[in-house]
Amino acid sequence: MKKLMNVVWTLRVWKDTKGQDLIEYALMAGFVAVAAGAVMPNISGAISTIFTKIDALLNQAAAS
């Protein structure tokens, strides 16, 4: 019975797509930022600043 429950939980994990949308949006935002930086070189500094701030916030959240 325990093996059957493990199989059921494994199948639930594979079918769970709750975080998929968030990852897709993050990847799309990254691609748009790279494209904007390539097309408009003046904006690349601002994009770099934004990602640096996001990185600092994520590192701060991970540390606490």
What is the structural class? mainly alpha
Poorly predicted ranges: none
- How many strands appear in the DSSP assignment? 0
Main beta-sheet annotation? none
Gap from first CA to last CA = 40 Å
Number of helical segments with 4 or more residues: 3
- Global shape: elongated
Explain how this protein is built.
This protein has 64 residues and is an all-alpha fold. It has one domain. Helix content is 84%, strand content 0%.
Question: How do the strands and helices of this protein lay out in sequence?
Answer:
Elements: H1 2-15, H2 20-39, H3 44-63
Can I get a quick summary?
The chain has 64 residues and is mainly alpha-helical. The protein has 3 helices and no strands.
Primary descriptors:
single chain; 64 residues; mainly alpha; 84% helix; elongated
